Amino acid sequence: MTELLTGLDVSRETLVDLKAYEALVQKWSPKINLVSKSALNDLWARHIVDSAQVWPLLPSTKTYVDLGSGGGFPSIVIAIFLKHLNTDASLTMIESDVRKTVFLQTVIRELELPATTLPMRIEKAPSQQASVLTARALASCDKLFGFAHQHLVPDGTAFFLKGQKAEDELAEARQNWDFSVKYHPSKTDTNAVILEIGELHRV
After folding, report:
1. Which residues lie across from 184 on neighbouring strands?
2. Does pLDDT of 5 surpass 70?
3. pLDDT, position 188
């Protein structure tokens, strides 16, 4: 299981927290459907490691925001890494589903993570003025860019975990947005990619 984290700087304490988080997802998911039943059987690779690979790409900053956090992928995983940096950085998770927000708050409390939740719709939330923003399995790039424009500082950077339709989504988004993009191949799925988006502004 831990061999999937090869290449990441994962301390023993970080690994303990990741496993504790895995146990909480296993406990809560049958009640509130955090992940699918099939994914629950391969939770470590399909969700935790997939989320962890984003961490080395993120610039060092004090304000991180995750959109549509759901069961905490990648937000809780990022917050666990942040915790063990021993800095004053924190992460805000925006999630409108009340039950999932309760779950996120439970994990934050039990693992003592440097994170908070904002239980409301992304478009209704006050601008977070984040330096770094993340989202996974949430919406098309065009819609995500609107959210990012709302919640990032002007020179902020967004990281979106995307599947095989990433190029089609970017082509659609270019009708409404100017942006720079860097492609980071997924280490867990050959058809997936992590998009690093910067210099974002409306056409």
Report:
1. 194
2. no
3. 86
**Three-state secondary structure of 130-159:** EEEEEEECCCCHHHHHHHHHHHEEEEEEEE
Q: How far is CA 21 from the centre of its chain?
A: 15
Residue 179 CA to residue 197 CA, distance in Å, equals: 7
Domain contains 1: no
Rounded to 5 degrees, what angle do the CA atoms 47, 152, 176 make? 90
Distance CA 54, CA 51 (A): 6
Full domain range(s) for residue 192? 7-202
The domain tally of the chain equals 1
Residue 4 has pLDDT above 60, yes or no: no
123-135 pLDDT per residue, tens: 999 999 999 999 9
